[in-house]
Design brief:
Elements (H helix, E strand, L loop, with lengths): L5 E3 L3 H12 L5 E4 L12 E2 L1 H9 L4 H4 L4 E8 L2 E13 L2 H15 L2 E4 L3 E5 L2 E4 L4 E2 L4 E3 L21 E9 L1 H7 L2 E7 L2 E7 L5 E8 H7 L2 H11 L1 H6 L3 E2 L3 E6 L12 E3 L14 H17 L4 H26 L2 H4 L3 H6 L2 H8 L6
Parallel strand pairs: 1-2, 1-10, 2-6, 4-12, 10-17
Antiparallel strand pairs: 3-5, 4-5, 7-8, 8-9, 11-14, 11-15, 11-16, 12-13, 13-14
Helix pairs in contact: 1-4, 1-9, 2-9, 6-7, 9-10
This protein binds flavin-adenine dinucleotide.
């Protein structure tokens, strides 16, 4: 059995744990199934809080995107409200963020083995694709969206009308001009789209949508065409050269790991899945990685840490889930938006959906 910690997954949660463990004097091993860092389907919005954590991990905001995001703009049923964010944020591609994080983990002393797939968790050890059993004194489960047999999140977490994530990128001066320095949310029946400019100036257009709404449209192309007809401002964001639409299914928004087992620390999306309109999933991923690594270094067992972290995620996840339930019903939320912006409610929600960072 390895005495050094083992990290399953080299996304934001796994890398944050690896950096913290390496800085704490250990030599963690990260196993990552991809051979090269891809560009995970994600809205790519990093909040001011997440940027503070990244700076502590050695990554400054300017290394991600030199152009800050300073405002939030919300569209619903022909209404638009806009307000300043509590502090500057950024939009970044996951290719950029994930590569920088993993590079930092390696330069701080972590070992990374790529192209290794975990097929199952067996009694706290990892069974890899080639049949080997990797055992360790501590397992950090950071496989994100992907469940691993033996430690999968419950199927009920997907809900009766499961959520899909869709993403396309739009390149061009017109769309860049429309979006500018804002993070935008376009609300529609049973879903929403987030739009933000990334480091190459392209607009990342990312949707979270109920399966029933996609089924009604018939296909992802037909869905975007229908939304463009229904929402003229959104149609402007779909102008320009397009990348193909990517999709992920069954995103268990609102799920949290309330209990754990000793010897195992569930991180990131394996610990809590906050609705993406909060733009805090990566904040939770990084916070969980840092906090669990610190806990292990200090001798706190997995079960105790998991329960503690679940308490930390309760407020942001609960508030974001309530806001999402309203956002998916534009006739209900649209009339409230101007007042919400005037009395500072949008700011208050933006602040209340952040995770406390370790
Ligand atoms: C539609 C949508 C929009 C979003 N927008 C935002 C946003 O704007 N801002 C924000 O902060 N968050 C956003 N999120 C949430 C964010 O993407 C996640 O919370 C975040 O990626 C979680 O990080 P992670 O490290 O836990 O997992 P991941 O980023 O999923 O990383 C997991 C890693 O583990 C590897 N892996 C998986 N399975 C195995 C295996 N069996 N063996 C070996 N390796 C494995 C994967 O290849 C991957 O590298 C969004 C999510 C969705 C669905």
């Amino acid at each position: 059995m390895r005495r050094e910690p083992l990290i399953l997954g080299g996304g934001p949660a796994g890398s944050a744990a690896a950096i913290t463990l390496a800085r704490g004097g250990t030599r963690p091993l990260v196993i990552e199934r991809t051979r090269e860092t891809g560009d995970a389907l994600c809205g790519g919005f990093l909040s001011w809080r997440t940027l503070e954590t990244l700076a502590r991990l050695g990554i400054e905001a300017e290394a991600l995107n030199r152009a800050p995001v300073t405002r939030v703009r919300i569209f619903a049923r022909g209404r638009v409200v806009e307000t300043a964010l509590p502090a500057p944020a950024v939009g970044v591609s996951r290719a950029r963020l994930d590569s920088l994080l993993l590079d930092h983990a390696v330069s701080d002393g972590a070992a990374v083995e790529r192209g290794v797939v975990a097929r199952a968790i067996e009694g706290g050890a990892i069974r890899t694709g080639d049949g080997a059993l990797l055992e360790s004194a501590a397992l950090f489960l950071a496989s994100g969206k992907h469940d691993v047999r033996g430690a999968a999140r419950p199927a009920e977490a997907r809900g009766t009308d499961p959520t899909l994530g869709l993403r396309t990128r739009r390149h061009g001066a017109a769309v860049a001009h429309c979006v500018g320095d804002a993070i935008e949310l376009h609300l529609f029946d049973r879903g929403y789209a987030g739009v933000v400019l990334q480091e190459d100036g392209s607009a990342n257009v990312c949707l979270a949508i109920r399966r029933s709404r996609l089924a009604e449209a018939g296909s992802t192309d037909a869905l975007l065409a229908a939304l463009a007809t229904e929402l003229p401002a959104f149609a402007d964001r779909l102008a320009g050269d397009a990348t193909p639409i990517e999709a992920i299914a069954n995103v268990p928004y609102g799920w949290r790991a309330r209990h754990g087992t000793d010897g195992c620390y569930r991180l990131g999306d394996q610990a809590a899945v906050i609705p993406s309109l909060a733009g805090e999933g990566m904040g939770i991923a990084l916070a969980s990685g840092v906090s669990a690594a610190q806990a292990w270094l200090a001798g706190e067992q997995g079960a105790a840490w998991q329960a503690r972290f679940a308490r930390q995620t309760a407020r942001p996840v609960t508030i974001a889930s309530a806001i999402r339930a309203m956002a998916e019903r534009p006739p209900m939320i649209a009339p409230l938006l101007p007042l919400a912006a005037r009395v500072g409610l949008i700011d208050a929600v933006a602040a209340a959906t952040r995770i406390a960072q370790a």
